[in-house]
Amino acid sequence: QVELVESGGASVQAGGSLRLSCKYSYPYSSYCIGWYRQAPGKERVGVASVDKDEQTSYADAVQGRFTVSKDNAKKTLYLQMNNLKPEDTGMYYCAADWCWGLRGGAWVDGDPTNWGQGTQVTVSS
Questions:
Q1: Is the pLDDT of residue 109 over 90?
Q2: Nearest-5° angle of CA 1, CA 67, CA 31?
């Protein structure tokens, strides 16, 4: 009933840009959607999100460099990533869950329950 499919991951040089996409499908009007990432050996962390009023939020590590947007007509979530750093390397996941727990680019009270398959982003220096 919930489908999330990411695309756009690639290997780029530090300072470069990438745009990730997530095609989404869910029947719940109270669902919100966002991006998480996970580096090898580290916990999955929130990156950016869009709330029910289309307000965007970002993790401190990406503030000013990443822009999340949502095209409701195309049912696609985007993550524009500029000035990429090696620390941005990881698997990026689209995630969705009920909106009530969403704060500052992540679900505060537990991980989201719905995930895409992930798309790999590698930033080399």
A1: no
A2: 25
